[in-house]
Amino acid sequence: MKRVFSGVQPTGQIHLGNYITMKNFVKQQDDKDCIYCVVDMHSITVPQDPVKLRKSIIELAALYMAIGLDPNKVTLFIQSQVPTHAELAWILNCFSYMGELSRMTQFKDKSEGKDVVTTGLFTYPVLMAADILLYDTHFVPVGNDQKQHLELTRDIANRFNNRFGDTFVVPEPMIAKVEDGARIMALDDPTQKMSKSNPNEHSKITLLEPPANVKKSIMRATTDSDSFIKYDLTNKPGVSNLLTIYSQFSPYSISELESKYEGLGYGALKKDLVEVVNAELLSVQQRFESIMASGEVYDVLKVGRERATQISTEVLDRVKQKIGFVTF
């Protein structure tokens, strides 16, 4: 069975864009060996409040389960609880080059204008490479913002394999088709991706958002000067974004929604979209509250930690033997 690995940072609130991606994780669990990780080590490349971080880690794991990940089918764990990630990251640092890391777009974006930049932010892609390579990963779900990091992972794996012989599985990107993983844009600026870090609370809708907040954000969403409901990313990005969200939260395709709302204004579309989004989020929130109340999430994370440790230790020992470390 082919293996899939992916991780999500426990920073900020999980929003609709993240949710669409995570729903695609659920689709993989029946025919692939799926390993999903709360990548808390990545989150501390920038300052975090310890109390908030600890809470966010557990809540993210519970949300993974609430959206439909089956603990009997997938491995779910916390990155920092499996020390092999840090150990392999150090080894891979010794097979990575300053030049290639300095060319990483995300590093340039996150370090721009800052007086102080941590080495953790600089070497973030190497830790990501370790995360992936530790599990003999065949496929990694990636969006446009992570393609460059996966290419670096492939480069490091090939570089190591060329020097020491076949050691790492070289992962392939798993890029969702548009209809399977549509890109959700910011509600206040549909030319920008919906982001956790956007300071405007109405630019995004989070999975734990109260219904009143969902309504306010959708009703305020940017549309266009006319009221003609048509999917057109170039000329009508606002209404196109709303149609995309609607299609992801309902059985209707975008073309069916265009027909459904033909001759109607944006008000009708937004009003119905509020109901559709709130209905699905209510279901997720109820499952989330049940998982948190029962404490089930802790048991799942302990089991996941044990399996992740077993798999990754075998791979790490293979690496150590190749480079000349003593293992027994």
Textual characterization of the structure:
- This protein is mainly α.
- It folds into two domains: 3-180 and 295-323, Rossmann fold, CATH 3.40.50.620; 201-288, Tyrosyl-Transfer RNA Synthetase, CATH 1.10.240.10.
- It has 13 helices and five strands.
- The strands form two sheets. Strands 1-2-3 form a three-stranded parallel beta sheet.
- Helix 4 crosses helix 7 (119-133).
- The protein is globular and about 70 Å long.
- 38% of the residues are buried.
- The mean pLDDT is 91.
How many domain units? 2
Shape summary: globular
Structural class: mainly alpha
Kindly report the average pLDDT value: 91
Order of helices and strands: EHEHHEHHHHEHEHHHHH
Name the poorly predicted regions. Answer: none
C-alpha Rg (nearest Å): 21 Å
Strand order of the main beta sheet, please?
A: 1-2-3
- Which architecture of the largest domain per CATH? 3-Layer(aba) Sandwich
CATH fold naming of the largest domain: Rossmann fold
CATH superfamily of the largest domain: HUPs
CATH level 1 class label of the largest domain = Alpha Beta
- The total of helices stands at 13
Instruction: Give the termini separation.
Output: 29 Å
- Largest β sheet strand count, sense and barrel closure: 3 strands, parallel
Q: Which range best describes the helical content: under 10%, 10-25%, 25-40%, 40-55%, 55-70% or over 70%?
A: 40-55%
The proportion of strand residues reads 5-15%
